[in-house]
Write a structure and sequence with these properties.
Length: about 325
């Protein structure tokens, strides 16, 4: 049996998929964070763990190729990181060649089999990338919470905090304070000054839920997020389909609703990113002899015209 392996290694988790050339997934694995910029050489251990789990019960010698979709690909310039990633491949028993691509490439391929277009990723952070022939050629934003990531989950959380302290007291401010575990405006300010980043980003679901419920403060934040994300996407000047990825855009949220409305008004093709680990496996197999890329993509990732309102797994 000829098999391929795909890995999606991000800042939150590493996921691996082993599939045959008919698009049947024969193994899945997951482990800890795999972004080497954030986790250093330890990221390779997580990637190896995900691979070993996915290959359980599978002969690694049957794997003919693999693609590693990596957040933080610039870290590969470090010989220590590069050697650690090679060792992770070996530790999983793999002897086949591997190709390392940026996670924007796998996120894009998780939404379409087209070779070129754009991907907009909004989770804790936010970044857009222009893709040409399955390579990233331009990037917009992705500058981190301090300098950018406008429209991201962290941005939503910071916007909620700003709205709460400026509109105190209000029903929305009370919900934000309750999330922080405080009861007063001054306490909320002190809490925010500590920059508990994970908990700030965790305000994003509250903002989305309150926007859906009609809260004007939350709705204004969501509208601003859509405006920022649209500007980030537009700055690429990319043609072709647009794939939406990340927790805010692959899931059913009012931020995604707003972006879909903008793209629909333009007549743009908007698609939802599904499983980037499976997309990495597809990238590994698409140019093998006898493979029809579109048929294999549909088998591994589903039809591209799936209505965006259907539940989809988030990629980040």
């Amino acid at each position: 049996m000829n098999l391929v392996v795909g890995v999606d290694a991000g800042g939150t988790a590493s996921r691996a998929v082993v599939a045959d050339l008919a698009g049947r997934v024969v193994g899945r694995g997951s482990a800890g964070p795999g972004n080497p910029l954030a986790a250093g050489p330890a990221a390779a251990h997580a990637i190896a763990g995900a691979l070993r789990q996915a290959l359980s019960g599978v002969d690694p010698a049957a794997v003919t190729g693999g693609v590693l979709g990596l957040a933080g690909t610039s870290a590969c310039a470090d010989p220590v990181i590069s050697a650690a990633l090679a060792q992770a491949w070996s530790d999983a028993g793999l002897t086949c060649p591997k190709t390392v691509v940026g996670d924007a490439v796998t996120a894009f391929a998780a939404g379409t089999c087209a070779p070129s277009g754009a991907v907009l990723i909004a989770g804790t952070g936010a970044v857009a990338a222009a893709i040409e022939n399955h390579e990233t050629v331009r990037v917009a934003d992705g500058l981190g919470w301090l300098l950018g990531d406008e429209g991201s989950g962290h941005w939503l959380g910071m916007s909620a905090l700003r709205s709460a302290v400026h509109s105190w007291p209000s029903p929305f401010a009370s919900l934000v304070a309750a999330h922080a575990g405080v009861t007063g405006r001054d306490e909320l300010i002190r809490w925010a000054q500590g920059l508990p980043h994970a908990r700030i980003a965790a305000l994003a679901p509250l903002v989305c839920a309150q926007a859906r419920a009609g809260d004007p403060s939350a709705a204004a934040i969501v509208t601003a997020a859509v405006r920022h994300l649209t500007a980030t996407l537009d700055s690429l000047g990319a043609d072709g389909p647009v794939v939406l990825a990340g927790g805010l855009l692959a899931a059913d949220t009012p931020v995604r609703d707003g972006l879909l409305a903008v793209l629909d008004a333009r007549g743009a093709t908007a698609l939802i990113s599904r499983d980037p680990a499976a997309a990495a496996a597809w990238l590994a197999a698409r140019e093998l002899p006898g493979i029809d890329p579109a048929t294999l993509h549909a088998a591994l990732l589903g039809a591209e015209d799936t209505p965006p309102g259907l539940p989809q797994p988030a990629t980040r």
